[in-house]
Amino acid sequence: MKDAQGGPAYGRTNWRRFAVAAVVPVAAAGALVVGMANGAFAASFTVSGQSFKISADKLEGTGFAQYGDKDTTADGTQIPVAMSGISSAKLYNLCQSVKMPGLPVSLTIRAGREAGKPAEATDLMIGMSELSGDAEFKSINIGQDAGTLGLGGENAKGKTGTFGQEAKSVTITDLRQVSTSTSAGTFKLKGLNLKVNGPGADGKPVECF
């Protein structure tokens, strides 16, 4: 396998605290609230524009793709994002939190906390602005034409002639993510717990991190 410049690309890449240029979709997002049961989600939709936080002890994904794109709000505002797709994923100790506008209150969703029973998702598509964690990719192509991507799922490809990257698999530990959108073909949230939280001891909304 070779990279975009024709040089050798090794089958195993380990980046610590990698930046958004190599973002990986993490799984879970605003769509979790309506995605508690299995079902189809649209590949794209109008977003609220409000960001939310996601954390997980570990993400294991098969089939990954990433490229630059944008989310669009109802008033036409465009939000630049790193758009990523994972064909199938397992998430351990998953947490999502979103602040309620104008109130020191938050909504948290937790799942996959029991040993051997992670949350599971297929055809994940996520638009994000920040991500950190310890990541390992296997058989990764960096600099691939975004219009030719295919490992991250049918909808995980960008415009022809723009930067993209994909890998056969990805593992991320200590995942922390800020995003504006997520969709999925199916989302199985094992041990689901949804809670409206009052302010914490510091008077601020409770968040995943």
Give a quick summary of the entry.
By secondary structure, this protein is mostly beta strands. It is built from no helices and nine strands.
How would you describe what is shown here?
The structure is a single chain. The protein has 209 residues and is an all-beta fold. It is built from no helices and 9 strands. The termini are far apart.
Q: Termini distance?
A: 38 Å
**Stretches with pLDDT under 50, minimum 5 residues:** 4-43
Q: What string gives the helices and strands in order?
A: EEEEEEEEE
Shape: globular
What fraction, in percent, of the residue positions are helical? under 10%
Strand-helix topology:
Layout lengths: L11 E5 L35 E21 L5 E15 L1 E6 L6 E6 L7 E27 L17 E21 L2 E3 L4 E5 L12
Antiparallel strand pairs: 1-6, 2-3, 2-4, 2-7, 3-6, 4-5, 5-9, 6-7, 6-8
